Amino acid sequence: MPRKAVAPSGLTPFDSRFDVVDTLLQYQGLPDATGLKIMWNAWKPTFGHSLGALRFSNIVGFGAVDGGAAYAEPFGMVAPSGVNVFIGTGDPITGFSLGKILNWGAQVVRVPFGSGHLMGAYRDALGGP
Length: 129
Fold this sequence. Notes:
Layout: H1 13-27, H2 33-40, E1 47-49, H3 51-61, E2 68-71, E3 83-88, E4 107-109, H4 119-125
Helix pairs in contact: 1-3, 2-3
């Protein structure tokens, strides 16, 4: 079964203001527009990265998905049961290894500082394709 990601956040300056709003919603446990679309269409993502990890954790928390992986789960989010959290030693977004304080079962992976937040750094650290 192919892995499906939660839709990534935008990379343009125009989209960044939506990312701020989406992040605030996600930390409150509320779905953003993308999360609502995923649940409305009954899509079944299997993982999320960064803002997508926040979104994925909330989707699992709502019961729309059984579980999966959250890569680079931003510091401050407590993932629900069924979410395997991966945080990086060189990733400031995850609070480095301090993210384990809130997610005790998180797997800490060695990623380089600077580029450590990129999905590719997590994929390389975990030996993925």
